[in-house]
Amino acid sequence: MFDSAKYWRLASNCVAALVLAFLMLPLLTMVPLSFNSASILSYPLSGLSLKWYEAFMGDPRWISSILNSLLVAISTVAIATPLGTLAALGLSLQEFRGKSFLIAVLLSPMILPTIIAAVGMYFFFAPLGLANSLWGLVLAHSALATPFVLITVSASLHHLDPSLARAGASLGASPLMVFWRVTLPIVLPGVVSGGIFAFATSFDEVVVAMLLTGPEQRTLPRELLSGTRENLNPTIMAVATVLILVSTVLLFALHLVQQRSNKR
């Protein structure tokens, strides 16, 4: 007997596999090139070597860019996560006129093209003396990352029963204690997921970094882009492999958070 559901499921799995291969194969081809012993980016490989990773880790320019990226990303998480969490709480617990418009404004950094946001931030930050500084970049990345925290925390708040907060308040707990002991444990998976997204948004961002940082504040993505234009060598592939590894770790961490949330 012809089982149409079975064949449709098989066809959808094949299409999904082809799309995944189309997206992933260009990235995976870079990984073997980072271990090539020759200085020419070509297949087949001449041999295996770690010298490009040694060149990467031994270059003060690359190390400085990594430290700058980590500083900016961690600072972005520290700013964007509380802001996005508080915004999600306020929007979910209160009904007021213009709420939809306010949500659209808060989510606009995700919708606007990055180059437009970068130019606007540059002209806003330059008179304030925040251009060519890492702290200006932190504020810009926080604006870009906060909508991701807002979305993830808002999704977690759908599982929050308002009567729990009222019960805590009726027992004499202060609003801060209700948030800390009742609300936060429930929405914590969304907060952690939002923090991961905020870190990834900042760590991989390059357009805003090109406009708001000078030669002394280069981040890893900006240094990587400059390297592809100035001197293409296998060291670039080693850096790209490290970035792929970081993204994989972040996705794995996000998956663990989602699994734990589902179990709860």
Which range does the strand content fall in? under 5%
Helical fraction: over 70%
Distance linking N and C termini: 42 Å
Main beta sheet, described?
none
Q: Please state the overall shape, judged from the principal axes of the Cα atoms.
A: globular
Question: Could you tell me the mean pLDDT?
Answer: 80
Query: How many H/I helices?
Result: 12
Rg computed from alpha carbons, rounded to a whole number of angstroms:
23 Å
Structural class: mainly alpha
SSE pattern, N- to C-terminal: HHHHHHHHHHHH
User: Tally of extended strands?
Assistant: 0
The poorly predicted ranges are none
General description of the model:
With about 260 residues, the protein is mostly helical. Helix content is about 80%, strand content about 0%. The chain has twelve helices and no strands. The chain has helices at about 5-30, 30-35, 50-55, 60-95, 100-110, 115-125, 135-155, 160-170, 175-205, 205-210, 220-230, 235-264. α3 packs across α12 and α4 (about 60-95) packs across α11 (about 220-230).
Summarize the structure.
This protein has 12 helices and no strands. It is mainly α and 264 residues long.
Architecture blueprint of SSEs:
Elements: H1 4-28, H2 30-33, H3 51-57, H4 60-93, H5 99-111, H6 114-125, H7 134-157, H8 162-170, H9 175-204, H10 207-212, H11 220-230, H12 234-263
What labels would you give this structure?
0% strand, 264 residues, mainly alpha
